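Final report, section 2: Outcomes. Of the targets proposed, Retinol binding protein 1, cellular, tandem duplicate 1 is the one most frequently requested by collaborating groups, and we therefore present its record in full.
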Amino acid sequence: MHKTSLLLCFPFIFCHLAHGPDVNIAIRKIATLLKPDKDIVHEGDHIIIKTLSTFKNYNMDFYVGQEFEEDLSGVDDRKCMTTITWEGDRLVCVQKGEIEGRGWTHWVEGDELHLVRKHQSLP
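The predicted structure is given below as tokens.
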């Protein structure tokens, strides 16, 4: 089995990452100042993504295409059912919970790791 480990340092491109209506204003301000590292370990369909920063660390451990319960306590204090799949060379996440239409897309372009968060505003 082939194992790839990738530690990506800044630049880490945030696009709408901490601007959801349910994210605490203090957390939003802190998140915009962070320069997190990403440690990504990819072994077959098993992927571990560690987001490392001076403020908070977050680990995702999942199998591509398999739904799992994601605990986002401390991020935006919610739990959701998450499925992550490959679309070409991009990891695409769909989160199902109290608010539908959430998720993100991750990809590497040149030396930059991109993350675009998808969310729908509250009614």
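The first helix runs from residue 25 to 33.
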